[in-house]
Design goal:
heterodimer, A: 425 residues, alpha/beta, Rossmann fold, Coagulation Factor XIII, Chain A, domain 1, six-stranded mixed β-sheet, globular, disordered N terminus, B: 288 residues, mainly alpha, 1% strand
Amino acid sequence: MQNSQLEKDIILKAENISKQYRLGQVGTGTLSHDINRWWHEIRGKEDPYLKIGDTNDRSTKGESEYVWALKDINFEVERGEVLGIIGKNGAGKSTLLKILSKVTAPTTGSIKSRGRIASLLEVGTGFHGEMTGRENIFLNGAILGMTKKEIASKLEEIIEFSGCERYIDTPVKRYSSGMTVRLAFAVAAFLEPEILVVDEVLAVGDAEFQKKAIGKMQDISRGQGRTVLFVSHNMAAIKQLCTKTIMMENGMVVFEGNTNDGIDFYLRSNEYEGYKGTYTNDNIKESGIVSLALIDKNNVIRTEFGFDEQIFINVNVKVNEQHLKSQLAFRVEDRNERIIFTSELKLLDYIKSAGVYKFAVKLPEKFLVPNQFHLTFGLHVPNVELIDFQKECLSFEILETGSEFHMYSQTDYGCVFVNCDWKFL
Amino acid sequence: MSPNNTTNDWLFEITPKNKFFSLNLKEVWQYRDLLFLFVKRDVITVYKQTVLGPLWYLIQPLFTSVTFTIIFNNVAGINTGKVPPFLFNLAGITVWNYFTSCLNGTSDTFKANAGIFGKVYFPRLITPLSVVISNLIKFGIQFLIFIAFYLYYYSQGADVALNGLVIFFPLLIVIMGILGLGLGMIISSMVTKYRDFSYLVGFGIQLLMYLSAVMYPINLIKAKLPDYGWIVEYNPLAYIIETSRYMLLNVGEISILGLTYTFGVTVAVFFGGLLVFNKTEKSFIDTV
């Protein structure tokens, strides 16, 4: 016991995991590579195609046919830890999980484990439409590594958790897709491996079931001390569940540490194509908006913000003598071009002469709901002249990082959060 | 919590390649319930939503035997000796069918199960094994119909009799299943990358039937085609079919040398198949 307090109780250890894929199609070209590879192998030489390969950035055109989906991944997981794995699409998260769950082997490196790993990569694997719900529970459970006895002893609980009692002796092909997923998740939730690998299961099912699923996962990790590896784009779920987070980018681990820092890192580094964090116009002759920038509290330009973060907009505006009476205004629209609000500033309250001036405006935290937003800026003299008008010159996204309403993520519950005063009478 | 965490007390390790020959039978044994459930699934779902259901198991060999009897015995005039030609053909076809269903069922293991293999790990060997076992049940049903006709012809006074060696018949069937499994594993591994092999199996099995003494006795081909008879003699399947007819109907001949050869080939093909299968299962999902 003393010893284990000094040393960490590592249950899973990944050492230099790399995975190479060949792009393109299998054809006669692959045959010649196969023969070449085999020829190297029988002479005891190294695989000639392992030395080449680009990093995995899907947006740039690579030069090699071979690509490294994962490159030198190292991490350790302690017993009872819930490790969140985050990153953009194509960062290598799913490949890593596939290797962990032994679906495919790494090209180099090794993973060492002290416990049985079971994966929930995509639930409902091996469901057979012609068989009843009950029969499928047994089949699916066995595929996931349970014995018949284990399943039988938990059958009642599984059926109850799924909420499909009424249909349990009906062939699964008659189920709605939601019911299939519920049943499948229920089976997987009662697995008892030491390490559970979960990929985005929470994206399915209705709000009530998602809540149930997150609760079950919390039980598994906290109550039962099981280790969970959890991949998700849902920062709220990551924040709620994970004790430690790694972030992946282009097949490499770029961050490893505590979850809050990890989510910050994710938001900061995640500059999506399509969002505009800055705007500049160097050709203003008389008056107009010179530049705009969306920044966070640390003065970093960003286009993605957590719902609980303050957002600042820095504005440089140029005014000449005749426009001193003008007003600087912006409005916020959501993805559906709904105008959320408009805000204005009378320049005359601050300036007395022509020049270029800097302003900063703060959007409050916990105000805009998770969604994509556009900002339209304008400089005008009310009812007289529109001096400058820049439609949708900035855009950004508010991410769900654990708001009260995160379980309703698919539903439209409004544009802003309002702290209403509820009174108990 | 063990105090010796720093030492090598890992439960298992995931590495790029399997050791040259790691069968991992222990793991297969742990998943025996899955094997059983796969077999059950195959058996109960095969003829769902059909009117005749399991009768289809019987219709196919009966019609084939009738056709063979008309073409090969009545038209071409192959002599089956004292045994009624229909019974002769039915015996050959029943046994042959088991082989082809094993080979067909296992040869697209990876391709057909790519969806499930791509999501969850279990010993891949379970899948072809379940095919061989569920086909054994199908074979059992087909064999019952053979017995029924056997009794019918017997009661009609046909000169058919079991050979005492018939007690080894189950062993023969097991060997045949293993041979089909072995070949199927080799082909399924090749198909993952080069689909050409699945076309090869399609017509290859048909051609192989003509070389496997299904509708003629071995000594007939040796007598009629002395120059090409060796092709049949090198075919291990021909010995299995010939020997099963010898056991069941007491016709033809039994060749100890031939059976030893068959056994040797089966063992070689089976272990070769395991080896290739084992190598493929680790990363086939990247190419399939």
